[in-house]
Write a structure and sequence with these properties.
Blueprint lengths: L5 H13 L1 H6 L3 H11 L7 H13 L1 H4 L3 H17 L8 H14 L8 H15 L13 H18 L8 H8 L5 H22 L5 H5 L13 H6 L14 H4 L9 H16 L6 H16 L10 H7 L5 H14 L6 H15 L6 H12 L35 H16 L2 H5 L6 H16 L6 H17 L4 H17 L4 H10 L2 H17 L4 H14 L5 H12 L5 H16 L7 H10 L3 H16 L2 H8 L17 H7 L2 E2 L4 E5 L10 E8 L3 E10 L10 E6 L8 E4 L8 E10 L5 E11 L6 E2 L8 H11 L5 E7 L3 H12 L3 E5 L3 E8 L3 E7 L7 E7 L4 H15 L1
Parallel strand pairs: 1-8
Antiparallel strand pairs: 2-3, 3-6, 4-5, 4-7, 7-8, 9-12, 10-14, 11-12, 12-13, 13-14
Helix pairs in contact: 4-7, 6-7, 6-8, 7-8, 7-9, 8-9, 9-11, 10-11, 11-16, 16-18, 19-20, 20-21, 21-24, 23-24, 23-25, 24-26, 25-27, 26-28, 27-28, 27-29, 28-30, 30-32, 31-32
GO cellular component, one term: AP-type membrane coat adaptor complex
GO biological process, one term: protein transport
Protein name: AP-5 complex subunit beta-1
Amino acid sequence: MGPLSRETWAQRLGAFRASPSAFMAGPEGEDLGRDLLSELRSEKLSEQTKVSLLALSLEYPAQLWPDATAAEAAATSLLDTLVLLPPRPSALRRPLLLAATTALVAGDALGPTSEASRRLLPLLLGLASGRDLGRGFGPASEQRPLQATACECLRELESCKPGLLGGCLGLLRGLLGQEGPVQPLSLLLALALRNTLVIRARARARAGLQGLLMAGDTPSGGDPWNWALAEEGDARLQPQAPSWPAAEEECGLAVLEPTPEEARELRAAVAQLLDTSYLLTPVAQAQLLWLLGWALRGLRGQTPVLFKPQLVRLLGTAQLTLLHAVLALKAAFGEALFTAQDEALLLRRLTVAAQHPALPLPAHLFHLHCLLSFPENWPLGPTGEEAAPLLLGPRLCRGLLPSLLHDPMALLARLHLLCLLCVEDEEKEEKGQDRSPRHYLEELLAGLRQRAALDGGPRASATLCFQASYLVVQCLATQPTVLTPLTHGLARLYRARPVLAPHFVDLLDRVGPELGEPLRVALRQEVVSRPGRDEALRRHLQILARVADGNAQSATLGFLGAAAAHCTDWGLQQALLRVCRALLRAGVGGGPADLLQALARQWEDPDGRDHARLYYILLAHLAGPKLAVALGPSPAAPASASSLVAENQGFAAVLVVQEAPAPIRLSVGPRRAAGPGPVLQLHVEVLEPAYSLELRFRVEGQVYAPLGAVHVPCLCPGRPCRPLLLPLQPRRPAPTRLDVRALYTTPTGLTCHARLPPLPVNFADLFLPFPQAPEGDKLGFFEELWDSCLPKGAESRLWCPLGPRGLEALVSRHLEPFVVVAQPPTSYHVAIRLPPDSRLLLRLEAAREDGVPVALRTDDWAVLPLAGDYLRGLSAAV
C-alpha cells in the first residue's frame, strides 16, 4: 500500500481516538502500527503530521505495541528514523526520543538483552551530557531542548527500573555543575540517588556508595547501566509525590549506615541539589525535596540540617506545592528539623490562609486538610488517633468555624475541625465559657436539620445534613452530651419530613451502636405513634422494617394491624410484609401469627396473600434460629448494598442472568462431507452440571448468514454427550471464526451466561462432494466439470513436494470423499463443491519421487489463494 495522504491519516487517527479497542479489532487495526512507523520516513508528509503520528504512539503505546516483540521492533524503527534525520533543525527529534522510550517501557521490553535498549540508553546518556550533540543530531540551537528531553527519558526509565542509573550518579553530579538544563538534571539525579539508597538499604549493601557518588564519566566497570541493582529494585518504590501520611510505610526499611567518606560525599551531593533548587519550578522543587527527604530519612547518623537554609526560604512561600513539601519534610524529620517556633508559624499561616475570602475552594480545602492532618512534633495520644494540633485552640480557629453559608465541601471540612476541637471542650465548659465549640456545633446541626425539614427543599440540603451527622458521630462517638441532642434532633426531622426515610436507613447502616441504638428506638416511637396513609405510610413501613426488633412488640403489631387496612396496592403490601419478615427474623415468638392470618384472609392480591400464608406456615413449623436462617439473605448471592431492598436476595439472583466463568469446553470434531450444506460437529464437555444449555454463535461481517442456537437439555461431568451439529450457511466460501456464548442454569437455580473461546471454521470445513458420478463415465463427468469452469473462472498450478506414497497418504487422509477418478498412487482427479455455488477441481497426476504437479481450476477466482494455502499446508503436514 502506498503512502497515505494527510486527510487519510486524519480520518484514521480520528477513528482510532474515538474507540481504540474497536479500531484495533477491525481490519485496519493490525496494520496501524506498521503504517505509522513507515510513514515517519515518508517525505510526502509534513513534520506537523509526523508529530501527530508520534503523539498517537505516546498516548496509546499499549494498543500499538501490545507485546515485548512488537515494542522492541517499534523502538528499533524509531531509533533508525532518528538517525536518518538530516542535520538541519527538526521538530521530530524530541518526539522520536520520547516515543522510543515509551515503546520500550510500555511493552516491557527494557532489559539487558534488548538490542533497542542497548542503543537507546547510551544515546540518551550521551545527549544528556552533550557529547553526541553536533554529530548528526541537529544544530546547536537544539542542544538544550534535546538535553532536557534526554533527561526526562532517563528519569522515566529510572522510575520503571529503580536502580538502573545507580552507576551514573557521579556522572550526573558532574553534569549538574556544567552549563545545561538544571531542572531535568536535578530531578534525574535526585531520583537516581533516592532509588540507589533505598535499594541498598533494603538489600543491606555496604560497599560501593562512595565510588558511585564520585564524579566521573563512568564507573570503574565501564558499564554505566546497573542492571543488577535494577533487578533488586523491582519492588516498585512508590509513591513519587509528597504524601506524609504514608511516610512510615514507605520508609519501613532497614537503615543504611554509610561510612564517614560515603556520608561526606552524600552530603555534598544533597547540598549540590539543594543549592540549585531555587532555579526549579514550584512543582519540581516539591518533588526534589520529597525525594531527598525520604532518601536521607533512611540513613543513620545523617541530620537533616542540610534542609535548614531551604526552610528559611520556604516557610514564607505562597505556593501550595511548596507548602505541601514543607509539611512532608516536617512529617519525615519532626523536631530534628522544625522548632516549636517553626511549628507555631506554620499553624498560624495555615489558619490565616484558610480564612482568606478570596481563596479558591480547592485551595481553601487544601489548607483545611493540612490543619486536620498537621504533623506535630510531639503529638499526644496513640499513633493514628485523630486530634487537633495542641497549638490550635478555639481562639485561633474562631474564623474557621463552619457556617450555613459555606460551600458544602468547605462546611464539612470546617465541621471536621470543629469536632476535633469539641474533644478538648470539657474543661473550658466547666470554667463558664459562654460559647464553647460544643454549643456552636449543636446550633449548626440544628440549622442544617431545619433546612433539611423544609417541605419541597432541595435534596442537597438533606444530603448535607446527614453527611454532617455522620461526621459528628465518627468524631464524637464517645461523647453522649453530643449524641443525645443529635438523636432527638434527627427524630424531630423525621417527624417533620418522613420522605427522608431512605437517608435515615442509610445512616443507620453506617453508624455504630453509639448512635444506632438510640436512633432506632426514637424512630420506632415516632413511627408507631403517628400512623399515616399513602406516601407517609410507605415511608413509615420502610423505617419500621429497618428498626423493628423484639422491643415494643405490642405497639409495633398494633401499628401494623391498623396500617393493613390502608395497604390496598401491591407496593404497600410488600412493605408491610417486609416489616413482618424483620419481626420474624428478630425472634419475636408467636406475636405476628394473628396478624399474618388476618392478612392472608383480607388481602385481595394473591401475591400478598401467598407471602402472608408462607410466613405464617414458617412461623408455625420452625424454631427461632431456623426461622431466621430461612428468612435471611441467600448465601448463593452477595448481599445487596441498597437499603431499599429487604427481600430475599436469592429471589433476585434467580431472576437476573449472572456472568460467570465458563465451565464448558467446546471443540470442533471431524468434518462431515455429506448433506446439502457444511455442518460442524461440536464436542461439549462440562466441569460441573449444566441444565438448559443454549449455545449462541455469531460471525463477524456478512460472509455467513446468521447461525441458529444449539440447545442441550442436560450435561454432566464424565457423561459423554452426542456430537452437536451446527449447520453453516456461507454466502461465499471463506474461513472465519465464530464467537460463542453460553446460556445455562446451574444446580443452584441461577441462570448464567459465559463467553467461550472462539471456534475456527477452516476452509476445508466447507468442502462438500458432488453427486455420485455415473458408473463407467467418471472421467467424462470430471472433464465436463473441468471445462465448465472457464472462461469465467480461473486456473492455477503449484508444486507439492510429495512422492507417490506421500501423495497417496494425503489423498486418503484428507481428500478421499471428493475423489472422482483415481489411479493410485500417482494420479487423482478431485472435485469439491463449495457453498453456496462454487466448485474447486484438482488434477494431481504424474507424481514423481521429488513431487507432484497440481492443476487447480475453479469458477470463482477468489477461491484460488485459499486452495493454494490449503494444499501447501497439507503437503507440509504429511
